[in-house]
Amino acid sequence: MRTLGVDLAAATKKTAVAVIEWSQGRARLAHLALDVADREIVELFGTTGMTGIDCPVGWPQALIPFLTGHLNFDGGPVLAHDGIEGRRLLAYRDTDRFVTARTGLIPLSVSADRLAHPAMRCAVIQARIAALHGPQPRDGSGKLAEVYPAASLKVWGLTARGYKGRGTSEAERLSVLLGTLREQAPWLDLAGHEDRLAGSDDLFDAVVASLTARAAAVGRTAKPDGAHAEAARREGWIHLPTSGLPDLLT
Question: Taking the model in full, what pTM does it have?
Fold first, then answer.
C-alpha cells in the first residue's frame, strides 16, 4: 500500500507531503515535496490508501452554538461558556483533551490559536476530496486520518520538542532526531532524501504523518471508544499510535 502524509500550513508555502510505499518487510519514501498546493494534495489522496494530515479536521462542537448565539444576540449559549472552563470547551476538542491525557502534550487550539487558518484550508481540501472521492469521516475510519507528529514521535520514544525552527539548535536537534528515526526504523528507505529531511522540519513532519497514516491503516492507533465516538465524528480525532515503529510492517 501507499500512505500519504501532509504537514499542512495556512498556504502553499511550507506545506509538505510525503508518500511512503509499503511492501513485505520494508518501506520506501517514494515522493517528498515542499510548497504543495491543494490540487496536488487531492491528487495524491486519490493515489494512496490512507492519508495522515497534520491539521485539525474539525472544530469544537460547543463553538458553533456559541458563535450563533453571539450573532443572533441570544445570550443563552454564550453565557453557558462563561469563565475559563467554559472557554476551554470552545478552544479544545474532545480529542485534544484525550491526547493531553495520554501524552502530556497540549495540541494547539483550532479556534483560538495559530491553527485556525490551516484548519480553514483543511476544510476546503476535505470538500475537494469529498467531491472527487466521497466524504471522509472525521474520526479517521475512512481514508483520511488526523495526525499529530509530535505525539506520534513521543509514543515511539523519540524527541518530540525543540526541532522546529530555523536556528542552529533546532537544526541540530532535527538532525539527531532524523538519525534516531533511521536507527529505530532501518527498514525505511529514505531514497536519498536525508539531507532534505534534516534541513526541513516540515518535510520531516510529513514523513512522520505518513508513518502514522500507516499505523491508522493497519489498526495500530487509538480509536475513539463509546465515550468519544460522537465527538470524534463531529470534531475529528487525532490518531495516536498504540505500538512501536516495527509494528508498522505487519
Answer: 0.95
